[in-house]
Amino acid sequence: MKRIAVLGSTGSIGRSTLDVIARHPQRLSLVGLSAHSRIELLQEQIARFQPEVVAVLDDAAAVRLRRQVGGTTQVLQGVEGLTRVATHPSVDLIVVGTAGPDALLPLVRAIEAGKDVALASKELLVMAGELIMRKVQEHGRRLLPVDSEHAALFQLLQGVPREQVERVILTGSGGSLWSLDAAQQDHVSPEQVLRHPKWQMGPKITVDSATLMNKGLEVIEAHWLFAAPLDRIRVVIHPQAVVHAMVELRDGSCLAQMSPCDMRLPIQAALSFPERWTADVPRLQWTQLAGLQFFDPDLDRFPCLRLALETARLGGTACGVLSAANETAVWAFLRETIAFGDIPRVIEETLAGHAPLAHPTLEEILAADQWARQAAQGVIRENKRFVQSVM
Ligand SMILES: NC(=O)c1ccc[n+]([C@@H]2O[C@H](COP(=O)([O-])OP(=O)(O)OC[C@H]3O[C@@H](n4cnc5c(N)ncnc54)[C@H](OP(=O)(O)O)[C@@H]3O)[C@@H](O)[C@H]2O)c1
Q1: Ligand 1 proximal residues by C-beta, below 6 Å
Q2: Average pLDDT value for residue range 165-180
Q3: 163-189: average pLDDT
Q4: What confidence tens digit (pLDDT) does each residue in 93-143 have?
């Protein structure tokens, strides 16, 4: 029996994870949960799974939940509470599906406490990949990717000697705006952007899919997870989203991982590793797979991907600054404070004010994150051009 804590249980990844856990009661048990502030849903999850412990990031919401929860579930709060859930003695493996940077410290402490990790929150690897991978090695833990492309690569690379690998390829559907040119993209509404053609996901990652920042973050994620040199990671747009990743071998053979767009598959692959269990999810319909297409991404039309690829080469705190500035800009777009086309401009201006630090400590990483969020807010506030563009 693997005992699991799910950080971000009320989100898209979190809900899919609970579904997988509920389908395997003989193999998986749920010990801990966490949310930011959606305590009604969290309360339903507590009633259903009876976890030992939950954490709520928002202090006021934690106090409200504590009044409502009876039984034996302990309600903790803030980053300290999240850390206690992640390091709880009854937990074997944590699933990280939180938004934002707050789970970084709990993640690091969990690895130090000997927990294995199934990681969806790519932003944490982007901001602290070097440190996280070092902790994983030092403590002999497993870091299992949940992001579908990385879960695909992880499966493809099992048993393949590294020296045989020429290149890894991450596919992306292109998101909701793939068919629009740059001028048309400039003034799309949040509602339009949130209509993803293939995946049902949280709002931030859905916007990242449309800007292709998601692929940029995934290149950095793959770099850390697989110790892959950046020039051996390629991004390919594949609108049908059937192939999730490919590995080109040195003899010219290419291995591909294909599956339906259902996050329960990579989540289950991580939770069941090194076994593989049956999954009651829709199967690929082979006769409907005609016409798979693959395109190079256009970096002029999708400047966020260009920025991410450039920043990946700088490394150090620059990647965290890219991610934090992007998150700030994405939420500003979702609140209709800036236009879609302003997102890369906010990121670029924020990055221009940052002097990257190589091999940062945890404290330096968190400080750079804070700085970037404030700097990006400043760019948004002070530059009238941005605000005018949505009027
Ligand atoms: N969704 C996908 O299919 C998918 C695929 C691959 C990778 N990912 C990655 O997985 C992560 C989660 O994505 P999602 O789509 O599941 O997001 P989501 O639906 O927005 O869920 C985010 C979860 O994190 C919680 N949360 C929000 N702010 C937090 C904070 N400051 N500290 C701790 N927890 C916080 C939320 O709680 P409340 O509900 O209380 O706000 C919710 O439980 C992201 O890093 C994303 O890139 C997602």
Answers
A1: 8-14, 35-38, 57, 97-100, 102-103, 120-123, 147, 199, 201-202, 205, 263
A2: 94
A3: 91
A4: 999 999 999 999 999 999 999 999 999 999 999 999 999 999 999 999 999
Percent of the chain at pLDDT above 70?
98
Q: Which atom of ligand 1 is nearest to the CA of 42?
A: 40
Give per-residue pLDDT as tens, 78-87. Answer: 999 999 999 9
What local confidence, expressed as pLDDT, does residue 198 receive? 84
Of all protein residues, the one whose alpha carbon is nearest to atom 20 of ligand 1 is 202
pLDDT on residue 173: 93
CB count within 10 Å of CB 5 equals 30
Nearest CA to ligand 1 atom 21: 11
pLDDT, position 391: 47
Q: Judge whether residue 259 has pLDDT over 80.
A: yes
Atom of ligand 1 nearest to the CA of 201: 1
- Structure tokens of 360? 């940062």
Pocket test residue of 205, 211, 263 for ligand 1, highest count of atoms within 8 A of CB:
205
pTM of the model: 0.96
Helices 203-211, 303-314: inter-axial angle, 10-degree rounding: 100
How many whole angstroms from 1 Cα to the centroid of ligand 1? 26
Give 197 Cα–ligand 1 centroid separation in angstroms. Answer: 19
Q: How far is the CA of 182 from the centre of ligand 1 (A)?
A: 28
Give me the domains of the chain, ranges plus CATH numbers. 2-120 (3.40.50.720), 150-257+282-388 (1.10.1740.10)
Q: Which tens digits make up the pLDDT trace of 193-203?
A: 999 888 889 99
